[in-house]
Amino acid sequence: MNIHAYEKLWLAASLVLIVLFIGSVTYGAVGAGIAMVDDAEGVIDPDALDEDDRFADPRVEEVGENEYEVYVVAGQFFFDPGTFEPIEVPEHSQVTFYVTSPDVIHSFSIPGTNANTMVIPGEVASMTVEVGDPQEYGIVCNEFCGGGHHDMEGEFHVVPEDEFTLEADE
Amino acid sequence: MTEELHREIGHDEYNPVGTLVLIALYFLVLLLLWLFVYFIEFLGRDLTVVGVVI
Q: How many residue contacts between A and B have a Cβ separation below 8 Å?
């Protein structure tokens, strides 16, 4: 087969480009530690969330030094906690959200960031983020979940260390 | 077309330099856009989901 020298050049260049694309995604996963939200948390009975010790009392919990877990119930049309009172965590900590739904599919997403997951009844979505300086974020639902979908929102506050108190300690 | 202007070239003498330059520019644009989208827009949007790759 007679392939022109120029053609060999751009065939090789396109292979290099593909290797670069795959390489940078691999770097994201291994070097930067980017993870995907998956089904690792297993299933839960959506009609009996109040029998589950994580979601019977949705809350922020300290699980280690600068490590927090946040249990959130996303329902029509609220995040608990989030909508009625903001979710608060201290600055520069690692926060893992566990979110589930008692009714229909919602989502838990923090606009302007990569923190975003679907919330499926019967499943627990978990995602871990690292928060930096104090900042106020919003939370919205981006899966159409009914007539009040457009009002379904909440707040997530990263507060200075000295202003942070756990609900249980108040 | 007169006889004098008629010229035949073989496979390897045909060098489409313009096409090569266009493709090189296109690759450069692709590469820059990818670097921008992945490293600045995606990795730079803080609160990124982190964890252990299984």
A: 81
